Amino acid sequence: TNPAFKEVLSRIESHEDCRNLPMISFLILPMQRVTRLPLLMDTICQKTPKDSAKYENCKQALKEVSKVHSRVIPVKEGCTCTSQVGDEGLKCDFLALQPFPLVSSSRWLVKRGELTAYVEDTGLFSKRTSKQQVYFFLFNDVLIITKKK
Predict the structure, then answer these.
(1) Pfam families, per this entry (predicted)?
(2) pLDDT tier for residue 4 given thresholds of 50, 70 and 90
């Protein structure tokens, strides 16, 4: 609600070092890394020869990374962007037309933004391409494309 904070945040997000990413993407990134570490370690273990001395170290590292992962996931799921998802859901008119459980403990917002969509309109004797501005919400398991009113 603080206009000065919003102005500073918008200036920071538009800085070239941030690559126009919203603040939420920087808050989610560490959690995404933690969830990917066990997959990475498992792949490394699979590629390491079983008779190698490094194989046991790799297995131990996988075990430790999995422990951290199992402690972080419940916290992450409890702190997903549920309130933000709920806020976005209130703004979407399609929810009134077709029920969709947008708010979920296992769903979080990954990225949102405005895009230009090119739409082909094929008539009987003509083919026309038009541009439309659309707003998208990319969640971890669903992509929602909307038009702004």
Answers:
(1) RhoGEF
(2) very high
Rounded distance between C-alpha atoms, residue 119 and residue 130, angstroms:
5
Query: Are 60 and 50 a contacting pair, CB within 8 Å?
Result: no
Q: What is the domain count for the chain?
A: 2
User: Which helix (H) or strand (E) covers residue 112, if one does?
Assistant: strand 109-122
- In tens, the pLDDT along 59-106 reads 898 888 888 777 766 544 444 444 445 444 444 554 444 556 666 666
Which residues face 144 on adjacent strands?
137
Hunting for tokens 């990917």 — which residue is that? Answer: 36
Which phi-psi region, left, alpha or beta, contains residue 20 (left: φ > 0; alpha: ψ -120 to 50)? left
Q: Are residues 101 and 65 in the same domain?
A: no
Helix (H, G, I), strand (E, B) or coil at 121: strand
